[in-house]
Protein backbone atom coordinates (compact mmCIF):
# COMPACT_ATOMS: atom_id res chain seq x y z
CA UNK A 1 0.00 0.00 0.00
CA UNK A 2 1.66 3.21 -1.17
CA UNK A 3 1.03 6.74 0.04
CA UNK A 4 -1.08 9.24 -1.91
CA UNK A 5 0.53 12.52 -2.88
CA UNK A 6 -0.31 15.47 -5.12
CA UNK A 7 1.68 16.63 -8.14
CA UNK A 8 1.28 19.84 -10.13
CA UNK A 9 2.47 19.18 -13.68
CA UNK A 10 2.98 22.08 -16.09
CA UNK A 11 2.53 20.88 -19.68
CA UNK A 12 2.94 22.43 -23.08
CA UNK A 13 0.35 20.96 -25.47
CA UNK A 14 0.88 21.49 -29.21
CA UNK A 15 -2.66 21.62 -30.55
CA UNK A 16 -1.89 20.32 -34.05
CA UNK A 17 -0.47 17.11 -32.60
CA UNK A 18 -2.22 16.44 -29.27
CA UNK A 19 -5.26 17.39 -27.22
CA UNK A 20 -5.97 17.63 -23.52
CA UNK A 21 -8.04 14.47 -23.89
CA UNK A 22 -4.85 12.58 -24.78
CA UNK A 23 -3.25 13.86 -21.57
CA UNK A 24 -6.26 12.95 -19.43
CA UNK A 25 -6.40 9.43 -20.85
CA UNK A 26 -2.69 8.89 -20.30
CA UNK A 27 -2.86 10.13 -16.70
CA UNK A 28 -5.82 7.89 -15.88
CA UNK A 29 -4.11 4.86 -17.41
CA UNK A 30 -1.00 5.52 -15.31
CA UNK A 31 -2.98 5.77 -12.05
CA UNK A 32 -3.38 9.54 -11.77
CA UNK A 33 -6.57 11.31 -10.67
CA UNK A 34 -6.95 14.84 -12.06
CA UNK A 35 -8.34 17.19 -9.41
CA UNK A 36 -7.68 20.64 -10.97
CA UNK A 37 -6.82 22.18 -14.35
CA UNK A 38 -5.48 25.72 -14.79
CA UNK A 39 -4.80 27.34 -18.15
CA UNK A 40 -1.57 29.33 -17.88
CA UNK A 41 -1.42 30.46 -21.48
CA UNK A 42 -3.70 29.75 -24.43
CA UNK A 43 -2.22 30.38 -27.86
CA UNK A 44 -3.22 29.46 -31.40
CA UNK A 45 -0.65 26.70 -31.62
CA UNK A 46 0.33 25.94 -28.04
CA UNK A 47 -1.54 25.77 -24.73
CA UNK A 48 0.24 25.68 -21.38
CA UNK A 49 -1.68 24.13 -18.50
CA UNK A 50 -1.05 23.29 -14.86
CA UNK A 51 -2.64 19.95 -14.03
CA UNK A 52 -3.03 18.96 -10.38
CA UNK A 53 -2.99 15.19 -10.04
CA UNK A 54 -3.53 12.91 -7.05
CA UNK A 55 -1.28 9.91 -7.39
CA UNK A 56 0.18 7.04 -5.39
CA UNK A 57 3.92 7.40 -4.76
CA UNK A 58 4.60 4.23 -6.72
CA UNK A 59 3.01 5.76 -9.85
CA UNK A 60 4.98 9.05 -9.87
CA UNK A 61 7.70 7.95 -12.23
CA UNK A 62 5.29 6.06 -14.46
CA UNK A 63 3.13 9.15 -14.97
CA UNK A 64 6.08 11.33 -15.94
CA UNK A 65 7.42 8.66 -18.27
CA UNK A 66 4.07 8.30 -20.04
CA UNK A 67 3.63 12.06 -20.45
CA UNK A 68 7.15 12.58 -21.78
CA UNK A 69 6.57 10.03 -24.53
CA UNK A 70 3.26 11.49 -25.78
CA UNK A 71 3.63 13.23 -29.18
CA UNK A 72 3.04 16.97 -28.96
CA UNK A 73 3.34 17.06 -25.16
CA UNK A 74 6.24 18.70 -23.33
CA UNK A 75 6.64 18.48 -19.54
CA UNK A 76 7.84 21.94 -18.49
CA UNK A 77 7.90 21.51 -14.72
CA UNK A 78 6.74 19.17 -11.97
CA UNK A 79 5.94 20.41 -8.48
CA UNK A 80 5.12 18.18 -5.54
CA UNK A 81 2.83 19.97 -3.06
CA UNK A 82 4.39 18.05 -0.19
CA UNK A 83 7.86 19.32 -1.08
CA UNK A 84 6.56 22.85 -1.65
CA UNK A 85 5.09 22.85 1.87
CA UNK A 86 8.53 22.04 3.31
CA UNK A 87 10.61 24.69 1.51
CA UNK A 88 12.47 26.69 4.15
CA UNK A 89 11.07 24.48 6.90
CA UNK A 90 7.59 24.49 8.45
CA UNK A 91 8.12 26.42 11.69
CA UNK A 92 9.67 29.71 12.77
CA UNK A 93 10.24 31.79 15.91
CA UNK A 94 8.41 35.11 16.18
CA UNK A 95 8.58 37.76 18.94
CA UNK A 96 5.58 38.36 21.20
CA UNK A 97 6.07 42.15 21.02
CA UNK A 98 7.67 44.48 18.47
CA UNK A 99 10.93 46.35 19.07
CA UNK A 100 10.29 49.75 17.46
CA UNK A 101 12.45 52.17 19.44
CA UNK A 102 15.20 52.53 22.01
CA UNK A 103 12.73 52.27 24.90
CA UNK A 104 11.44 48.94 23.60
CA UNK A 105 15.01 47.72 23.22
CA UNK A 106 15.96 48.68 26.78
CA UNK A 107 12.82 46.94 28.06
CA UNK A 108 13.30 43.53 26.42
CA UNK A 109 17.08 43.47 26.08
CA UNK A 110 19.72 45.71 27.58
CA UNK A 111 19.73 47.18 30.20
CA UNK A 112 16.30 46.12 31.48
CA UNK A 113 16.80 42.40 31.00
CA UNK A 114 19.59 42.38 33.60
CA UNK A 115 17.08 42.79 36.45
CA UNK A 116 15.12 39.78 35.19
CA UNK A 117 18.29 37.70 34.86
CA UNK A 118 19.30 38.48 38.44
CA UNK A 119 15.82 37.60 39.72
CA UNK A 120 16.15 34.17 38.11
CA UNK A 121 19.73 33.78 39.39
CA UNK A 122 18.45 34.34 42.92
CA UNK A 123 15.47 32.01 42.43
CA UNK A 124 15.81 29.61 39.44
CA UNK A 125 12.13 28.66 39.84
CA UNK A 126 11.23 32.08 38.43
CA UNK A 127 12.36 30.83 35.01
CA UNK A 128 8.88 29.31 34.75
CA UNK A 129 7.21 32.72 35.02
CA UNK A 130 9.83 34.97 33.38
CA UNK A 131 10.96 32.90 30.38
CA UNK A 132 9.42 30.67 27.73
CA UNK A 133 10.43 27.56 29.71
CA UNK A 134 6.96 26.94 31.14
CA UNK A 135 5.43 26.49 27.69
CA UNK A 136 8.29 24.98 25.68
CA UNK A 137 9.06 21.37 24.86
CA UNK A 138 12.17 19.91 23.21
CA UNK A 139 11.39 17.32 20.53
CA UNK A 140 14.50 15.13 20.63
CA UNK A 141 15.55 12.46 18.13
CA UNK A 142 18.61 10.78 16.69
CA UNK A 143 16.71 9.74 13.56
CA UNK A 144 17.23 6.01 14.08
CA UNK A 145 13.57 4.86 14.03
CA UNK A 146 11.60 7.33 11.94
CA UNK A 147 8.10 6.01 11.33
CA UNK A 148 8.02 3.80 8.25
CA UNK A 149 11.52 4.91 7.22
CA UNK A 150 13.90 3.45 9.82
CA UNK A 151 17.39 4.82 10.48
CA UNK A 152 17.60 7.84 8.18
CA UNK A 153 19.73 10.10 10.36
CA UNK A 154 19.16 13.41 12.17
CA UNK A 155 18.97 15.70 9.13
CA UNK A 156 16.40 13.54 7.36
CA UNK A 157 14.37 13.27 10.57
CA UNK A 158 14.06 17.06 10.84
CA UNK A 159 10.87 17.40 8.71
CA UNK A 160 9.10 14.94 11.01
CA UNK A 161 10.21 16.82 14.11
CA UNK A 162 9.11 20.13 12.58
CA UNK A 163 5.71 18.56 11.90
CA UNK A 164 5.54 17.45 15.52
CA UNK A 165 6.30 20.99 16.64
CA UNK A 166 3.48 22.30 14.42
CA UNK A 167 1.01 19.90 16.05
CA UNK A 168 2.12 20.92 19.54
CA UNK A 169 1.45 24.56 18.69
CA UNK A 170 -1.78 24.19 16.75
CA UNK A 171 -3.47 21.68 19.03
CA UNK A 172 -2.21 22.69 22.48
CA UNK A 173 -0.54 26.10 22.04
CA UNK A 174 2.81 24.66 23.18
CA UNK A 175 6.08 25.96 21.75
CA UNK A 176 8.13 22.97 20.60
CA UNK A 177 11.63 22.98 19.16
CA UNK A 178 13.27 20.12 17.21
CA UNK A 179 16.61 18.87 18.50
CA UNK A 180 18.02 16.34 15.99
CA UNK A 181 21.17 14.87 17.50
CA UNK A 182 24.05 13.58 15.40
CA UNK A 183 24.90 10.71 17.72
CA UNK A 184 23.54 7.23 18.41
CA UNK A 185 25.39 6.87 21.71
CA UNK A 186 22.84 6.68 24.56
CA UNK A 187 25.25 8.30 27.00
CA UNK A 188 25.84 11.24 24.67
CA UNK A 189 22.12 11.65 24.03
CA UNK A 190 21.41 11.64 27.76
CA UNK A 191 24.22 14.10 28.41
CA UNK A 192 23.12 16.51 25.66
CA UNK A 193 19.47 16.50 26.71
CA UNK A 194 20.39 17.08 30.35
CA UNK A 195 22.67 19.96 29.34
CA UNK A 196 19.94 21.80 27.40
CA UNK A 197 17.03 20.89 29.68
CA UNK A 198 17.13 24.14 31.68
CA UNK A 199 15.47 25.93 28.77
CA UNK A 200 12.55 23.52 28.47
CA UNK A 201 9.50 22.59 30.52
CA UNK A 202 9.40 19.08 29.06
CA UNK A 203 11.23 16.61 26.81
CA UNK A 204 9.47 14.66 24.05
CA UNK A 205 11.66 11.80 22.85
CA UNK A 206 10.86 10.74 19.29
CA UNK A 207 11.95 8.10 16.78
CA UNK A 208 14.83 6.63 18.82
CA UNK A 209 15.34 2.94 18.12
CA UNK A 210 14.70 0.11 20.57
CA UNK A 211 16.09 -1.06 22.94
CA UNK A 212 18.24 2.08 23.46
CA UNK A 213 15.11 4.21 23.84
CA UNK A 214 14.15 2.42 27.08
CA UNK A 215 17.40 3.24 28.86
CA UNK A 216 17.51 6.80 27.48
CA UNK A 217 14.02 7.58 28.72
CA UNK A 218 14.50 5.81 32.05
CA UNK A 219 17.72 7.71 32.82
CA UNK A 220 16.41 11.10 31.73
CA UNK A 221 13.18 10.66 33.69
CA UNK A 222 15.21 9.79 36.80
CA UNK A 223 17.81 12.55 36.40
CA UNK A 224 15.62 15.47 35.32
CA UNK A 225 12.83 17.21 37.25
CA UNK A 226 10.69 17.89 34.17
CA UNK A 227 8.41 15.50 32.23
CA UNK A 228 10.21 13.13 29.84
CA UNK A 229 7.89 11.29 27.48
CA UNK A 230 8.84 8.90 24.68
CA UNK A 231 5.86 9.28 22.38
CA UNK A 232 6.60 6.23 20.23
CA UNK A 233 6.23 4.11 23.35
CA UNK A 234 3.66 5.75 25.55
CA UNK A 235 1.70 7.82 23.05
CA UNK A 236 0.96 4.72 21.01
CA UNK A 237 0.04 2.78 24.14
CA UNK A 238 -2.28 5.47 25.50
CA UNK A 239 -4.25 5.85 22.26
CA UNK A 240 -4.38 2.08 21.68
CA UNK A 241 -5.82 1.60 25.18
CA UNK A 242 -8.34 4.39 24.61
CA UNK A 243 -9.52 2.76 21.40
CA UNK A 244 -9.63 -0.68 22.97
CA UNK A 245 -11.71 0.48 25.94
CA UNK A 246 -14.37 1.75 23.54
CA UNK A 247 -14.11 -1.23 21.17
CA UNK A 248 -14.77 -3.56 24.10
CA UNK A 249 -17.93 -1.61 24.89
CA UNK A 250 -19.09 -2.12 21.30
CA UNK A 251 -18.59 -5.91 21.43
CA UNK A 252 -19.72 -6.29 25.05
CA UNK A 253 -16.53 -7.80 26.47
CA UNK A 254 -14.45 -7.08 29.59
CA UNK A 255 -10.76 -6.21 29.41
CA UNK A 256 -9.81 -8.60 32.20
CA UNK A 257 -11.44 -11.56 30.46
CA UNK A 258 -10.12 -10.97 26.93
CA UNK A 259 -7.13 -12.77 25.45
CA UNK A 260 -5.09 -10.05 23.77
CA UNK A 261 -2.32 -10.75 21.26
CA UNK A 262 0.25 -7.96 20.83
CA UNK A 263 2.53 -8.38 17.82
CA UNK A 264 5.77 -6.43 17.38
CA UNK A 265 7.54 -6.18 20.73
CA UNK A 266 9.61 -3.08 20.16
CA UNK A 267 9.24 0.24 21.95
CA UNK A 268 5.52 0.60 21.24
CA UNK A 269 4.71 -3.07 21.78
CA UNK A 270 6.36 -3.20 25.19
CA UNK A 271 4.63 -0.02 26.32
CA UNK A 272 1.24 -1.24 25.07
CA UNK A 273 1.64 -4.46 27.08
CA UNK A 274 2.67 -2.55 30.21
CA UNK A 275 -0.26 -0.15 29.99
CA UNK A 276 -2.75 -2.95 29.27
CA UNK A 277 -1.52 -4.82 32.33
CA UNK A 278 -1.87 -1.68 34.45
CA UNK A 279 -5.40 -1.17 33.11
CA UNK A 280 -6.43 -4.65 34.21
CA UNK A 281 -5.74 -6.95 31.27
CA UNK A 282 -4.85 -10.42 32.50
CA UNK A 283 -4.38 -12.53 29.37
CA UNK A 284 -1.79 -10.90 27.12
CA UNK A 285 0.26 -12.87 24.60
CA UNK A 286 3.32 -10.97 23.31
CA UNK A 287 4.60 -12.12 19.91
CA UNK A 288 7.68 -11.09 17.95
CA UNK A 289 9.72 -12.60 15.12
CA UNK A 290 11.04 -15.26 17.47
CA UNK A 291 7.51 -16.30 18.41
CA UNK A 292 5.51 -15.98 21.61
CA UNK A 293 7.47 -14.60 24.55
CA UNK A 294 7.76 -17.39 27.10
CA UNK A 295 8.66 -17.58 30.78
CA UNK A 296 10.79 -20.60 29.96
CA UNK A 297 13.17 -18.56 27.78
CA UNK A 298 16.04 -16.25 28.68
CA UNK A 299 16.21 -13.01 26.67
CA UNK A 300 19.13 -10.61 26.36
CA UNK A 301 16.63 -7.74 26.07
CA UNK A 302 15.70 -6.78 29.64
CA UNK A 303 12.28 -5.48 28.57
CA UNK A 304 11.48 -8.79 26.90
CA UNK A 305 12.61 -10.71 29.96
CA UNK A 306 10.29 -8.69 32.20
CA UNK A 307 7.44 -8.98 29.71
CA UNK A 308 7.86 -12.74 29.35
CA UNK A 309 7.34 -13.10 33.08
CA UNK A 310 4.31 -10.80 33.16
CA UNK A 311 2.40 -12.20 30.17
CA UNK A 312 1.25 -15.48 28.59
CA UNK A 313 -0.25 -16.97 31.77
CA UNK A 314 -1.68 -19.84 29.72
CA UNK A 315 1.80 -20.89 28.57
CA UNK A 316 0.95 -20.87 24.85
CA UNK A 317 3.88 -21.86 22.63
CA UNK A 318 4.58 -21.26 18.97
CA UNK A 319 4.03 -18.14 16.89
CA UNK A 320 1.26 -15.81 15.82
CA UNK A 321 -0.96 -18.58 14.44
CA UNK A 322 -1.00 -20.40 17.78
CA UNK A 323 -1.43 -17.16 19.75
CA UNK A 324 -4.45 -16.04 17.73
CA UNK A 325 -6.53 -19.21 18.08
CA UNK A 326 -9.52 -18.15 20.17
CA UNK A 327 -8.06 -14.70 20.86
CA UNK A 328 -10.41 -11.75 21.34
CA UNK A 329 -8.04 -8.93 20.37
CA UNK A 330 -5.14 -8.46 17.95
CA UNK A 331 -2.93 -5.39 18.38
CA UNK A 332 -0.22 -5.02 15.75
CA UNK A 333 2.74 -2.64 15.82
CA UNK A 334 4.92 -4.67 13.49
CA UNK A 335 4.81 -4.53 9.69
CA UNK A 336 2.77 -5.23 6.54
CA UNK A 337 1.60 -8.72 5.65
CA UNK A 338 2.03 -10.17 9.14
CA UNK A 339 -1.64 -11.13 9.57
CA UNK A 340 -3.61 -13.50 7.32
CA UNK A 341 -7.31 -14.08 6.72
CA UNK A 342 -6.90 -17.66 7.98
CA UNK A 343 -5.55 -16.38 11.28
CA UNK A 344 -8.44 -13.93 11.61
CA UNK A 345 -10.91 -16.76 11.08
CA UNK A 346 -9.37 -18.62 14.02
CA UNK A 347 -10.06 -15.78 16.47
CA UNK A 348 -13.04 -15.64 18.83
CA UNK A 349 -16.35 -14.21 17.68
CA UNK A 350 -16.83 -10.43 17.95
CA UNK A 351 -13.11 -9.98 17.55
CA UNK A 352 -11.19 -6.70 17.62
CA UNK A 353 -8.23 -6.03 15.32
CA UNK A 354 -5.92 -3.02 15.63
CA UNK A 355 -3.59 -3.32 12.59
CA UNK A 356 -1.50 -0.26 13.44
CA UNK A 357 1.67 -0.68 11.35
CA UNK A 358 2.11 2.50 9.34
CA UNK A 359 1.93 3.31 6.48
CA UNK A 360 1.03 -0.29 5.53
CA UNK A 361 -0.96 -2.25 8.15
CA UNK A 362 -0.46 -5.88 9.12
CA UNK A 363 -3.35 -6.82 6.81
CA UNK A 364 -5.16 -4.84 4.13
CA UNK A 365 -8.36 -3.49 5.75
CA UNK A 366 -10.45 -4.59 2.78
CA UNK A 367 -9.30 -8.17 3.31
CA UNK A 368 -9.85 -8.08 7.05
CA UNK A 369 -13.25 -6.39 7.26
CA UNK A 370 -15.44 -9.49 6.57
CA UNK A 371 -13.79 -11.35 9.46
CA UNK A 372 -13.51 -8.57 12.08
CA UNK A 373 -16.16 -6.95 14.29
CA UNK A 374 -14.12 -3.80 15.09
CA UNK A 375 -11.16 -2.81 12.92
CA UNK A 376 -8.71 0.04 13.53
CA UNK A 377 -5.50 1.09 11.76
CA UNK A 378 -2.85 3.78 12.06
CA UNK A 379 -3.99 5.40 8.81
CA UNK A 380 -6.16 8.48 8.33
CA UNK A 381 -7.94 7.12 5.24
CA UNK A 382 -9.78 4.40 7.19
CA UNK A 383 -12.16 4.66 10.17
CA UNK A 384 -10.79 4.35 13.72
CA UNK A 385 -7.31 5.82 13.30
CA UNK A 386 -5.06 5.06 16.28
CA UNK A 387 -2.92 8.17 16.17
CA UNK A 388 -0.47 9.53 18.76
CA UNK A 389 -1.65 13.05 17.94
CA UNK A 390 -4.66 12.31 20.15
CA UNK A 391 -2.31 11.94 23.09
CA UNK A 392 0.86 13.98 23.30
CA UNK A 393 -0.53 17.55 22.97
CA UNK A 394 -2.97 17.07 25.85
CA UNK A 395 -0.51 15.15 28.03
CA UNK A 396 2.15 17.85 27.72
CA UNK A 397 -0.43 20.66 28.08
CA UNK A 398 -1.53 19.14 31.37
CA UNK A 399 2.00 18.35 32.54
CA UNK A 400 3.24 21.87 31.78
CA UNK A 401 0.22 23.57 33.36
CA UNK A 402 0.73 21.77 36.67
CA UNK A 403 4.55 21.79 36.32
CA UNK A 404 4.68 18.05 36.72
CA UNK A 405 7.95 16.43 37.70
CA UNK A 406 7.29 13.44 35.44
CA UNK A 407 4.60 11.64 33.45
CA UNK A 408 3.76 8.60 35.56
CA UNK A 409 1.62 5.52 34.92
CA UNK A 410 -1.48 7.03 36.52
CA UNK A 411 -1.26 10.06 34.21
CA UNK A 412 -1.05 7.81 31.14
CA UNK A 413 -4.03 5.74 32.24
CA UNK A 414 -5.98 8.93 32.92
CA UNK A 415 -5.13 10.22 29.44
CA UNK A 416 -6.34 7.00 27.80
CA UNK A 417 -9.65 7.09 29.66
CA UNK A 418 -10.09 10.77 28.82
CA UNK A 419 -9.59 10.14 25.09
CA UNK A 420 -12.09 7.28 25.21
CA UNK A 421 -14.63 9.45 27.05
CA UNK A 422 -14.77 11.99 24.22
CA UNK A 423 -16.80 9.46 22.22
CA UNK A 424 -20.17 9.40 23.97
CA UNK A 425 -21.83 6.07 24.64
CA UNK A 426 -24.67 6.76 22.21
CA UNK A 427 -22.16 7.56 19.45
CA UNK A 428 -20.11 4.37 19.81
CA UNK A 429 -20.22 1.89 16.95
CA UNK A 430 -17.89 -0.33 14.93
CA UNK A 431 -16.83 2.59 12.74
CA UNK A 432 -16.38 5.12 15.54
CA UNK A 433 -14.45 4.05 18.63
CA UNK A 434 -11.90 6.87 18.75
CA UNK A 435 -12.31 10.65 18.29
CA UNK A 436 -10.78 12.61 15.45
CA UNK A 437 -7.47 14.34 16.07
CA UNK A 438 -9.29 17.57 15.15
CA UNK A 439 -11.92 17.15 17.86
CA UNK A 440 -11.31 20.18 20.05
CA UNK A 441 -12.51 18.38 23.17
CA UNK A 442 -9.62 15.90 23.14
CA UNK A 443 -6.76 18.15 24.29
CA UNK A 444 -8.79 19.77 27.06
CA UNK A 445 -10.19 16.47 28.35
CA UNK A 446 -6.71 14.89 28.37
CA UNK A 447 -5.22 17.99 29.99
CA UNK A 448 -7.74 17.95 32.85
CA UNK A 449 -7.35 14.23 33.43
CA UNK A 450 -3.56 14.42 33.44
CA UNK A 451 -3.49 17.33 35.87
CA UNK A 452 -5.86 15.59 38.28
CA UNK A 453 -3.79 12.40 38.13
CA UNK A 454 -0.59 14.39 38.67
CA UNK A 455 -2.08 16.18 41.69
CA UNK A 456 -3.42 12.98 43.26
CA UNK A 457 -0.08 11.16 42.84
CA UNK A 458 2.14 14.01 44.03
CA UNK A 459 3.64 14.77 40.61
CA UNK A 460 2.25 18.32 40.37
CA UNK A 461 4.18 21.34 41.67
CA UNK A 462 1.25 23.71 41.19
CA UNK A 463 -2.50 23.43 40.81
CA UNK A 464 -3.93 25.49 37.94
CA UNK A 465 -6.82 27.81 38.98
CA UNK A 466 -9.41 25.93 36.93
CA UNK A 467 -8.54 22.69 38.72
CA UNK A 468 -8.65 24.41 42.12
CA UNK A 469 -12.11 25.75 41.37
CA UNK A 470 -13.35 22.27 40.49
CA UNK A 471 -11.87 20.85 43.67
Explain what you see.
By secondary structure, the protein is an alpha/beta fold. The protein has 19 helices and 14 strands. It has helices spanning 20-29, 60-68, 81-86, 102-108, 113-122, 127-130, 154-172, 186-196, 212-223, 231-251, 267-279, 302-310, 320-324, 341-345, 365-368, 392-401, 409-421, 441-456, 465-470, and strands at residues 4-14, 33-42, 46-56, 73-80, 136-141, 175-180, 202-205, 228-230, 259-263, 283-288, 291-292, 329-332, 352-355, 374-377. Strands 11-10-9-12-13-14 form a six-stranded mixed β-sheet. The longest helix is centred in the middle third of the chain and has 21 residues, at 231-251. The protein is globular and about 80 Å long. The two termini are 50 Å apart. The mean pLDDT is 93.
Per-chain topology:
Blueprint: E1 4-14, H1 20-29, E2 33-42, E3 46-56, H2 60-68, E4 73-80, H3 81-86, H4 102-108, H5 113-122, H6 127-130, E5 136-141, H7 154-172, E6 175-180, H8 186-196, E7 202-205, H9 212-223, E8 228-230, H10 231-251, E9 259-263, H11 267-279, E10 283-288, E11 291-292, H12 302-310, H13 320-324, E12 329-332, H14 341-345, E13 352-355, H15 365-368, E14 374-377, H16 392-401, H17 409-421, H18 441-456, H19 465-470
Parallel strand pairs: 5-6, 5-7, 7-8, 9-10, 9-12, 12-13, 13-14
Antiparallel strand pairs: 1-3, 1-4, 2-3, 10-11
Helix pairs in contact: 7-16, 8-9, 10-11, 10-17, 11-12, 16-18, 17-18
